[in-house]
């Protein structure tokens, strides 16, 4: 039960009320206020004020310094109060319930606004990225069109040039054949007129072929080309696929598998000298988890904690190890460590699906228990309510949640 603060003081003007609360060395102060309720909580002390008149919560303020919290409340009506707080117990209970209900609604509205703002920011970012990508595609398409037009123009120019060249070669060839035929006729006519024997005539085509044979280049000199292969990332056959969509059930060289193996090697190599002293089964996280469970069931919480610590050093991706270690910390009253391990377990238990519902409920209950042990009942209530949403038929969980509500409302026995 929290200790009620009785040594606070207050002063007023016609428009303001100033409340001074000594913090007694507290490092963390939780202040909750509304138009008709004020709570100052710094464990294990608690101050509740039920103003006799309504105040303006939006214009009120609080300052903390030099071991004192000064709360400034703005009155809705300008007049002096006869007393600071109302004394009727029933009225206090109703005011407290209304204030806590409004606070929960306010927190829910703020969370919704944050979610909507984040969603709108993501939507705006996505729209901007799509516009940028569209502009880039237009630029690329424009470059492609320009390159296509330039290439087409060059091809047409080359085709025209080749056509002219072919026509010119055909014309020259026809002219050469005509000249050769004229020469043959002239030689034949001369031979017939002289009465001499036929002479050997070398036509132009044969002479050109002989000339081309003489002008052929010499064979190229043989040489060697140096080839260097990329070293393998992992000693497996090169025919194995490294893609994520490899059709085999387990690809021993997929990027995910290689990443997990590298991470495991880093963890083991960090403590290789210490791990060399362990037996083969003691290097198995599953065996260590079972050993920790047996020690916990026997009440040997320190041994269970050591087993879970070693298992986590070997594999940091098993949420049950963090959740079980949080249970050990609860038994050993290491509440801050219990909160840390429970939070780590919940982080690993994402996304939230039906298969991990029971594990998530246990982690929420263990973190909520640690919060309550630290007298942070509001935070503990949130974890218990989350666990109750996961397992609404759990009667023990319903009873514990109601007890925390009663403590917060100040009606616990």
Automatic annotation (TrEMBL):
TPR repeats: 361-394
GO molecular function: nuclear estrogen receptor binding
Subcellular location, principal: other
SUPFAM superfamilies linked to this entry: HSP20-like chaperones, TPR-like
CDD domains named in the record: p23_DYX1C1_like
UniProt-listed GO biological process terms: determination of left/right symmetry; epithelial cilium movement involved in extracellular fluid movement; heart development; inner dynein arm assembly; nervous system development; outer dynein arm assembly
Record bears the keyword NAD: no
Pfam family, one: CS
Sections of the chain in a coiled coil: 129-180
Region of interest: Disordered: 181-206
Keywords (A to Z) from UniProt: Cell projection, Coiled coil, Cytoplasm, Neurogenesis, Nucleus, Repeat, TPR repeat
Lineage top rank: taxon: Eukaryota
InterPro entries on file: CS_dom, CS_DYX1C1, Dynein_assembly_factor_4, HSP20-like_chaperone, TPR-like_helical_dom_sf, TPR_rpt
Domain CS, first and last residues per copy: 3-85
One of the record's GO cellular component terms: extracellular region
PANTHER family documented for this protein: DYNEIN ASSEMBLY FACTOR 4, AXONEMAL, DYNEIN AXONEMAL ASSEMBLY FACTOR 4
Protein name per its UniProtKB record: Dynein axonemal assembly factor 4
Natural source organism: Hippocampus comes (Tiger tail seahorse)
Biological classification of the source: Eukaryota, Metazoa, Chordata, Craniata, Vertebrata
């Amino acid at each position: 039960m929290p200790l009620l603060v009785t040594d606070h003081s207050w002063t007023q003007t016609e428009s303001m009320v100033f409340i001074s609360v000594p913090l007694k060395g507290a490092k963390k102060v939780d202040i909750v206020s509304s138009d008709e309720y004020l709570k100052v909580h710094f464990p294990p002390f608690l101050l509740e004020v039920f103003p006799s008149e309504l105040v303006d919560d939006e214009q009120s303020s609080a300052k903390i310094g030099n071991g004192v919290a000064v709360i400034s409340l703005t009155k809705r009506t300008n007049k002096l109060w006869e007393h600071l707080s109302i004394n009727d117990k029933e009225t206090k209970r109703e005011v407290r319930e209304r204030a806590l209900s409004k606070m929960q609604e306010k927190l829910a509205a703020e969370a919704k606004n944050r979610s909507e703002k984040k969603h709108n920011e993501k939507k705006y970012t996505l729209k901007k990225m799509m516009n940028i990508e569209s502009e880039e595609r237009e630029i690329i398409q424009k470059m492609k069109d320009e390159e296509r037009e330039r290439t087409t123009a060059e091809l047409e120019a080359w085709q025209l040039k080749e056509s002219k060249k072919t026509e010119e070669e055909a014309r020259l060839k026809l002219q050469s054949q005509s000249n050769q035929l004229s020469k043959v006729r002239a030689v034949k006519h001369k031979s017939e007129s002289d009465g001499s024997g036929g002479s050997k005539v070398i036509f132009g085509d044969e002479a050109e072929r002989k000339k081309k044979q003489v002008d052929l280049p010499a064979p190229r000199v043989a040489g060697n080309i140096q080839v260097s292969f990329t070293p393998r990332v992992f000693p497996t056959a090169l025919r194995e696929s490294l893609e994520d969509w490899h059709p085999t059930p387990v690809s021993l060289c997929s990027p995910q598998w290689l990443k997990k193996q590298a991470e495991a090697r880093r963890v083991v190599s960090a403590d290789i000298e210490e791990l060399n002293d362990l037996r083969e089964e003691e290097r198995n996280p599953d065996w260590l988890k079972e050993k920790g469970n047996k020690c916990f069931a026997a009440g040997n919480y320190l041994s269970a904690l050591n087993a879970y610590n070693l298992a986590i050093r070997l594999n940091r991706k098993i949420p049950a190890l963090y959740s079980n270690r949080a249970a050990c910390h609860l038994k050993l009253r290491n509440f801050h460590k219990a909160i840390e391990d429970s939070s780590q377990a919940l982080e690993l238990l994402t996304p939230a699906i039906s298969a991990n519902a029971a594990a998530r409920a246990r982690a929420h209950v263990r973190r909520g228990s640690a919060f309550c042990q630290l007298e942070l009942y509001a935070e503990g209530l949130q974890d218990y309510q989350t666990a109750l949403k996961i397992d609404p038929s759990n009667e023990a969980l319903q009873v514990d949640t109601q007890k925390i509500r009663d403590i917060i409302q100040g009606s616990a026995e």
